Amino acid sequence: MSEEITRWGIAETRRRLVKKDVTVVEVIEAYLKRIEALNKKINAFITICGDSALREAKFYTEHPEKLVEKPLGGIPIAVKDCLCTEGVRTTCGSKILESFVPPYNATVVEKLLQAGAILIGKTNMDEFAMGSSTEHSYFGPTRNPWDISRVPGGSSGGSAAATAASFCPGAIGTDTGGSIRQPAAFCGVVGMKPTYGRVSRYGLIAFASSLDQAGPMARNVQDTALLLQVISGYDPKDTTSILKEVPSYCEEMKKPLKNLRLGVPKEYFAVKGMDSSIEEVIRNALKVFESLGARIVDISLPHTEYGVAAYYIIAPAEASSNLARYDGVKYGFRATSSNQDLISMYSETRFQGFGAEVKRRIMLGTYVLSAGYYEAYYRKASQVRNLIRKDFEDAFLTCDAIIAPVTPILPFLIGEKLEDPLSMYLSDIYTLPASLAGIPGITVPSGFSPDGLPIGMQILGNYFQEDLILRLAYAFEQASGISGRYPAI
Amino acid sequence: MKLSKITQEEVKHIAKLARLKLSAEEEERMVYQLNDILLYMEKLNELDTSNVEPMHHAVEQVNVMREDKPKPSLMREKALANAPEQNGVFFVVPKVI
């Protein structure tokens, strides 16, 4: 019974809780049992909230009426460790925040709790969300549940792996350049990066403020839509969130696809070193869409190849500024040494507190913003960002959504790319353009490689068209019957 | 011999600006890794952007204001709770003057 519970997913668990087939305590106990038995192998969590989760579960025993009212009542959700949780330490995968206990909840977390969700744990991530493999965590790498010698992707690798391994039916990740979509693809789960501004960033520890966006991850499209519904919306505490009505995603999702035009960007299929099984899976997915009444159109996103260079200037520039706050004064780690003037305390704290990738990006960001280089790098990259945005604007004149691969490569081996940062950056080529433009994107599991590694497809939509891309993802999932495989851990 | 975009001296200078101490080994690695990355960035110069506005935000918004009304904010005790060193009233730092 216990193992069966952990396979249900959000909608299914809700149905059974409301029918009283199962109690919230039984649900939480089932997940905690599974986490206890298997998390050591995967390392998906930095903090497991066992006691508080059970306490909250018992609340529902005493107040059964609340369970029915709340859309996520009794559902255990894991949250990436860069989202502040009041009273629960929030590390961002970094030594510098190892013992930071936030005094408030991120709006995303607050909304989940208001909706009745139970925080089951805080998930592992690349330090400050900088990375594509979850190897850059102070708390050790997360492993891919489909093959533990491989990475789960990153930076939301803990959220993706926890969802794939049935440690939770759904999780929240964050995406700055692909950090939800790429790990979702590597772990065979659904992951959505909403439009920039759709979801509040209040309490999301900043990496690159003009790009960061939180979003849902789950094992099927409906569960993803349920989570998105809860976390979306304007927040007066985040001036970059947008005041715009949130549609009913679960209803919109079920509309038919007839006459929708799906753009296939030629630049996303011409990349050197692209794994042939990925191309094959995407081509098959296009056939499924055609059979559902959609029309495939060829499009061009001519500045795609410049996305990596533009992103790896803009994101580190913003990061170098955002991470200036870690100085060992207000919160977090402080280095203690005898030579203690203020400046050396700062430098020593940052030397001991940050890992290699974070240092690299702080250096890169400081360099591209420094006197004499600002125009050549930061300004230039921001102009190219506009060209990339324009690519999408033009494309959406002739298509309703875009179908693309998520990554050119399959999940790689742990350690394989660690000493070659540029090659890791280049693997983000298909996710960065949508981040730079700010449009929404969803990863949907679409097949497997000959070795049994998951492959995902990316569906991109125009600004605030989360409903449309969910609809495509849902229709594909239903027609392809691809979900329902679980990794053997 | 690959083109050199950044020297060891520049790396030292940037680290100083970023208030970041680097070990000798880190400094050496930083020179060639940043060099690799910056050489790759040269790719952007293939594009003529002389008539392109820079884009800084996905959704343009200007002057988002709130009402100018005082509200309660974080209590001192909570604000100080995560500090590595504090005296109940202030954050404590090494002597400055």
Summed up:
The complex is a heterodimer of chains A (489) and B (97). With 489 residues, chain A is an alpha/beta fold. In chain A, 40% of the residues lie in helices and 13% in strands.
Descriptors for this entry?
heterodimer; A: alpha/beta; Amidase signature (AS) enzymes; 11-stranded mixed β-sheet; 18 helices; globular; B: 97 residues; mainly alpha; Histone, subunit A
Protein described:
The complex is a heterodimer of chains A (489) and B (97). By secondary structure, chain A is α/β, with parallel strands linked by helices. Chain A has a domain at 2-255 and 474-480: Amidase signature (AS) domain (Amidase signature (AS) enzymes, Alpha-Beta Complex). Chain A is built from 18 helices and eleven strands. In chain A, strands 1-3-2-4-6-5-10-11-9-7-8 form an eleven-stranded mixed sheet, sandwiched between helices. Chain B has a domain at 1-45: Histone, subunit A, CATH 1.10.20.60. Chains A and B meet through helix 12, helix 13, helix 14, helix 15 and helix 16 of A and helix 1 and helix 2 of B.
| Percentage of residues assigned to helices of chain A | 40-55%
| Helix and strand run of chain A | HHHEHHEHEHEHEEHHEHEHHHHEHHEEH
| Strand element count of chain A | 11
What is the arithmetic mean of pLDDT of chain B? Answer: 92
Strand content of chain B: under 5%
Tell how many strands the DSSP assignment of chain B holds: 0
User: Main sheet of chain B, how many strands, which sense, barrel?
Assistant: none
Given as residue ranges, the uncertain stretches of chain A (5+ residues, pLDDT < 50) are none
Structural class of the helices, strands and pairings of chain B? mainly alpha
CATH fold label of the domain at 1-45 in chain B: Histone, subunit A
Q: Low-confidence segments of chain B, ≥5 residues, pLDDT <50?
A: none
- Overall structural class of chain A, as computed from helix and strand content, comes to alpha/beta
Strand order of the largest sheet of chain A: 1-3-2-4-6-5-10-11-9-7-8
| CATH-level-2 architecture of the domain at 2-255 and 474-480 in chain A | Alpha-Beta Complex
Q: Helix count of chain B?
A: 3
Report the biggest beta sheet of chain A as strand number plus sense, adding barrel if it closes: 11 strands, mixed
Greatest chain-chain interface? Answer: A-B, 71 and 51 residues
